[in-house]
Amino acid sequence: MSALGFLLKRGMDLKKLFDQMNQKHFDGELEVPILTWNSRLEVEAGRFIPPKSQWKFWKDQEPAIEMGAYLLEIDPPQAQEDQICIVLCHEMIHYWLWSRGRPYGHTEEFEEKAQQIGIAEMRIQGAVPTEKYLYECPNCLKNFKVKRRVEELACESCCQKYNKGVYDSRFCLRFVRYL
């Protein structure tokens, strides 16, 4: 099941939540942007993407807000809803500033609006980067847990010890198993 399908099944609708936050904190002045879940967001909880109208082929693109799909896995459900609201409001502030022609980064004006909404002091839970692969040095047998598949990566300790710190394929890490 897709992240969006999962969310809708749990009763959380991003557009509905956007509309509620828009009325409550922005006097309903924001147009609904493209709202999506992004399973590749792991460090960021969300992001606002303004249209890139300066490029001819993206002329008609609308503003977008992407939300990290990992937010759907937060337990308990109440904490999940709170985190989603915080992230969405945060991104809506960026959108609100952009729509007014203002600098839309983490400016003083951004901080003032976050304070006004009541999310300035709230912390967003980041995704915990998980190591998925186990590699091993063929020489010293030291294990390395990594997030992504690697090729031609050598054991730094063995390269230092036996080859003056220069890469040596004799110490190239070998895949052991998935974690």
Alpha-carbon Rg, integer? 22 Å
Number of strands: 6
Largest sheet, if any?
3 strands, mixed
The CATH architecture category of the largest domain equals 2-Layer Sandwich
The helix/strand order is: HHEEEHHEEHE
Give an account of the 3D structure:
This protein has helices at 3-9, 14-26, 77-99, 108-117, 156-163; strands spanning 34-38, 46-49, 64-68, 133-136, 143-146, 174-178. The chain has 179 residues and is of the alpha+beta class. It folds into two domains: 3-117, 2-Layer Sandwich (Zincin-like); 133-178, no CATH class. The strands form two sheets. The chain has a three-stranded mixed beta sheet with strand order 1-3-2, with helices on one face. Strands 5-4-6 form a three-stranded antiparallel beta sheet, with no helix packed on it. Strand 4 (133-136) and strand 5 form a beta hairpin. The longest helix has 23 residues, at 77-99. The protein starts with a helix and ends with a strand. Residues 1-11 have low confidence and may be disordered.
Provide a quick synopsis of the model:
With 179 residues, the chain is an alpha+beta fold. The protein has helices at residues 3-9, 14-26, 77-99, 108-117, 156-163; strands at 34-38, 46-49, 64-68, 133-136, 143-146, 174-178.
Chain-wise SSE layout:
Layout: H1 3-9, H2 14-26, E1 34-38, E2 46-49, E3 64-68, H3 77-99, H4 108-117, E4 133-136, E5 143-146, H5 156-163, E6 174-178
Parallel strand pairs: 1-3
Antiparallel strand pairs: 2-3, 4-5, 4-6
